[in-house]
Write a structure and sequence with these properties.
Distance between the termini: 23 Å
Radius of gyration: 25 Å
Number of strands: 9
CATH architecture of one domain: 3-Layer(aba) Sandwich
Low-confidence stretches: 1-21, 354-360
Helix content: 40-55%
Strand order of the largest sheet: 2-3-5-4
CATH topology of one domain: Collagenase (Catalytic Domain)
Strand content: 5-15%
């Protein structure tokens, strides 16, 4: 069957044992036994019980908004990248031709602070002058289109990905954009008044530094403009409705539907002149946003475009611009206290940082760095072990689907067919991205950023008329994350496959509870509230019987009602409509991983290690993988705009719905997390 892993069940343990060479990170089992809070009952707060002592003593670095196990792994990866990029930089060369040489020259150009301070705003003056000289809205629309592969912002965003109704080809999709703050709620909810005020001050500061006429007046107008954009925009919860987000138009029909915006000029600017079909995402927002563009004073539009240019260029300009951006985007919005040391900023500039959102990391050599990274730090044995582990998780999920008591035979057959199509991608893409035509100079950081961004956008535009590349990746190898993609692929970049996320020397229960639950999570995304809208070919099609769809929604609503009661920061509750997909994936992923762990024992009793049973180690490992804490501003932003619930609730909100957890830790009625068996959320 296409894409199905064929490694036999039970082989994972053999592969893991084959690459054991030393003790696990936390011997003997792989659990940090010092992290526990013995004063907390597991049934009252499992997250605190498993991690309380660690939480008490862990300190959030001044240059971070949070500290987590994944962040610690990112720090390890960043140190590895530093070693690689330093070596590349030592090669020298003004305009090198080799991959490593270009990476090194890019890094040197970022680290050349005296040159940046001497240049000031000069690298951006030509673009700012063009914006200031714009006489028509059509010209501004064209500049907005160019921002897809260059600096600047736009009221609309273009992406090129698999066509959800013709999965052999790509589609050009248009979505709402234009907001500087993390979410529309920041403009509309009074509790974010401080952030709005700081945004206005930030825009004024950038425009003042650039010598823009009437900077403060224009900053006020920019804040009012973005507030109108926010009012017209869809919520992130609305954006989870995939059928509602698929609305094909010809450019001419789009011009008639949303006549206030110069669509032909915008598409030409994005390099998409001649395209005869686009997919409009937030359909009802488009006429409103186009009308806002048409009604807004031309001076305000010019100032807004100039501000977005300055905002995106600020990290690569002289200190006043970079400092202003850090104050707003990191200190105000995330609560970060200090800027990172310079070399870390340089590493992130050239490598794309962690690229958590996937896709192209703007203006970097991220895929080039990924090639250098995997050549040095990704052993083939790790790839085999993860592939085997994925095979066992797929087998466990298959068994669960086959035995669901709420799913009928027709839907079940379609679900199993979809599961069989999944492709597992581990480590790095088989086909490396070429940088042969990207010019990198060691004295031109802003030019390097712009040329890298243009090359990256051209990569997507140039392939948009061809067949879908099923081997494609949308997350770089140096990213500490995983994803379930539009190609029905489950992707595990090299950087996430290190201890403590994946510790080849650790006990099997620990690996199943940590990376196993992550694998199960990504599998479940194909069947969450969004993924269930896509069939076995990846096409947007309702393959559920009405009865099964109703049963799914009813069971998901039980989980949603639980999450609606959780309050990560005072006065701000989790939005279950926004987080439903991730909550379902967390719950399904842990249940699947537990089944796979039990199957791996082949009927034998799990050993007792560290005084803990196999199931106790499994659940403790899950909680340990999610340990972390964040600053209030970061948690507020996450809760408002991110589809992931805050980590404490990714643990407590899940385990309380799994029967085996109750048995493992003796959880009883009266414990704070106790849920009556009849009221527990049971979906997958």
């Amino acid at each position: 069957m296409p894409g199905r892993i064929s490694i036999a069940a039970g082989s994972c343990a053999l592969l893991l044992s084959a690459i054991v060479s030393s003790a696990p990170l936390y011997p003997p089992a792989g659990l940090d036994m010092s992290a526990i809070d013995p004063a907390t009952r597991p049934g009252d707060d499992f997250f605190q019980y498993a991690n309380g002592n660690w939480l008490e003593h862990a300190t959030i670095p001044a240059d971070r908004s949070f500290i987590t196990e994944a962040q610690r792994l990112r720090d390890v990866t960043e140190t590895q990248l530093h070693e690689i990029i330093d070596a590349a930089a030592a090669q020298g060369g003004h305009e090198p031709a080799t991959l490593a040489g270009k990476v090194g020259a890019f890094y040197r150009s970022f680290m050349d602070d005296p040159r940046r301070e001497a240049q000031g705003l000069r690298p951006l003056q030509k673009q700012l002058a063009e914006v200031r000289g714009c006489k028509t809205r059509a010209r501004l629309a064209n500049i907005m289109g160019r921002s897809m592969g260059d600096l600047g912002g736009s009221l609309f965003f273009v992406s090129i990905d698999v066509d959800l109704k013709d999965t052999a080809h790509y589609a050009v999709s248009l979505s709402q954009s234009g907001l500087s703050l993390p979410d529309r709620d920041y403009y509309l909810n009074p509790q974010f008044a401080r952030e709005k005020r700081e945004f206005r001050d930030y825009a004024a500061r950038l425009l003042t530094l650039a010598g823009w006429p009437g900077a403060q007046v224009q900053a006020n107008a920019i804040e009012a403009l973005e507030s109108r954009i926010a009012e017209a925009s869809w919520t992130k919860a609305q954006q989870r409705n995939l059928p509602a987000m698929y609305n094909p138009y010809t450019p001419a029909a789009l011009q008639a539907f949303a006549p206030g915006f110069a669509w032909a000029d915008f598409l030409a600017g994005a390099g998409l002149r001649g395209k005869q079909r686009v997919i409009v995402n937030e359909q009802s927002a488009f006429p409103k946003l186009a009308q806002i563009f048409a009604d807004t004073d031309l001076n305000t539009l010019r100032a807004w475009v100039a501000y977005t240019l300055l905002d995106s260029a600020a990290p690569y300009l002289s200190a006043p611009f970079a400092d202003a951006r850090f104050h707003f985007r990191d200190q105000v919005l995330l609560g970060i206290k200090e800027r990172p040391v310079r070399w870390k900023e340089g590493i992130r500039a050239v490598s794309g940082g962690d690229c958590l959102a996937g896709g192209a990391c703007f203006g970097t050599l991220n895929w080039a760095v990924g090639q250098l990274y995997t050549a040095k730090y990704f052993p083939p044995a790790t790839k085999q072990a993860i592939q085997a582990l994925v095979a066992e998780l797929i087998g466990a999920y298959r068994n669960r689907i086959e035995h669901l008591d709420w799913m009928g035979p027709a839907t079940r057959a379609e679900a199993l067919r979809k599961l069989d199509t999944y492709v597992v991608k581990v480590g790095y893409p088989d086909k490396p991205r070429s940088y042969d035509n990207v010019v990198v100079r060691d004295d031109d950081i802003l030019g390097n950023v712009r040329r890298a961004a243009a090359a990256d956008w051209a990569y997507y535009v140039n392939r948009s008329d061809g067949p879908v590349d099923t081997g494609d990746w949308s997350m770089t190898p140096q990213t500490v994350d995983a994803y379930n993609g539009s190609l029905r692929d489950i992707v595990f970049p090299a950087a996430i496959l290190q201890a403590p996320e994946f510790d080849a020397e650790a006990d099997a229960a620990v690996n199943y509870g940590s990376v196993g639950s992550t694998i199960g999570h990504e599998l479940t995304h194909g069947f969450d509230d969004e993924g269930r809208a896509l069939d076995a070919s990846g096409a947007l099609r309702d393959w559920w019987t009405p009865e099964d769809a109703a049963a799914f929604k009813q069971r998901a609503a039980v989980l949603g009602a639980q999450y609606a009661t959780y309050e990560p920061v005072a006065g701000l509750h989790i939005n279950p409509e926004l987080t439903m997909g991730e909550n379902l994936a967390d719950l399904g992923g842990l249940a699947i991983a537990l089944d796979a762990y039990h199957a791996s024992l082949h009927g034998q009793a799990a050993p007792v290690i560290d005084g803990l049973s196999g199931d106790q180690r499994f659940f403790r490992a899950f909680a340990q993988a999610w340990r972390g804490k964040g600053r209030d501003d970061y948690i507020r932003q996450l809760t408002t705009s991110d589809p992931h619930s805050y980590r404490k609730f990714r643990v407590n909100g899940v385990v309380r719905n799994i029967d085996a957890w109750y048995e493992a830790f003796g959880v009883q009625p009266g414990d704070k997390l106790y849920v009556d068996p009849a009221q527990r959320a049971r979906v997958w």
